[in-house]
Design a protein that fits this description.
By secondary structure, this protein is mainly β. Helix content is 12%, strand content 37%. The protein has an eight-stranded mixed sheet.
């Protein structure tokens, strides 16, 4: 198995790990302030790209809320708000960790399809800074399907940054310089994943450093 923690595990990443190493990802959802909050469902089918998570209700109360503060329905994406039950030195009550997740689906008996009675998350989406902002102000998580580009283009590392409405910077570390038709293909591929017209600017870098906390955001927004 590949144990993953700290960053968002996408279905695309799960497929890449499976294809490269022939093993499955086992993910843990945690926060530095709160510790482990949810674990991947152990009974999910092998090769599942969306196995779901069980909230560790013995130690945290985890809520998924809409923007108006009401609870999200099953299948809805909302803000993650956590109350830590065993942090006696510094209690955290309804602490907004800055993440978004998809509320889990359970049966009429309150149990998951595998029989467990713990609260469930269908997926962890990521932080609000990872959501692009469309021209109409709507926020969304892009899906560029970049794994399909690595076999066709000499990309070693990539990062997308939005600094203004309708404009997206693609920072690339490449094995060799792009040919003009390769850069045009990259821009067209990225543009197809975005709603409406966007200006896509390609910038080549020697390296793309990680953030102060050691994490790597492959896509984030630098304005509000």
């Amino acid at each position: 198995r590949v144990m993953t923690i700290s960053e968002v595990v996408t279905p695309e990443l799960r497929r890449q790990v499976r294809e490269a190493w022939g093993v499955e990802c086992v993910d843990v959802y945690s926060a530095r302030e709160c510790g482990p909050m949810a674990f991947q469902c152990p009974d999910a089918p092998e090769s599942s790209d969306t196995p779901g998570y069980f909230v560790q209700a013995e130690r945290v109360i985890l809520e998924v809320l809409r923007e108006d503060g009401t609870p999200a329905e099953a299948g809805e994406t909302g803000r993650v708000v956590v109350t830590v039950l065993h942090n006696y030195a510094q209690p955290m009550i309804r602490y907004a960790v800055g993440d978004y997740a998809v509320a889990g689906k359970v049966g009429s008996d309150g149990r998951s399809p595998c029989g467990r009675g713990l609260p469930r998350l269908e997926a962890v989406r990521g932080r609000v800074r990872n959501m692009l902002i469309a021209a109409d102000g709507r926020r969304f998580w892009p899906s560029f399907k970049t794994s399909g580009l690595f076999g066709k283009l000499p990309i070693r590392q990539h990062q997308f940054i939005q600094r203004a409405p309708g404009r997206l910077e693609a920072h690339l570390v490449v094995w060799r310089p792009f040919e003009p038709d390769e850069e045009a293909y990259f821009i067209r591929h990225v543009g197809e994943a975005l709603p409406g017209p966007w200006e896509i600017v390609v910038e080549y870098r020697d390296e793309i450093p990680r953030g102060p906390g050691g994490k790597f955001d492959d896509c984030y927004v630098e304005f509000s």
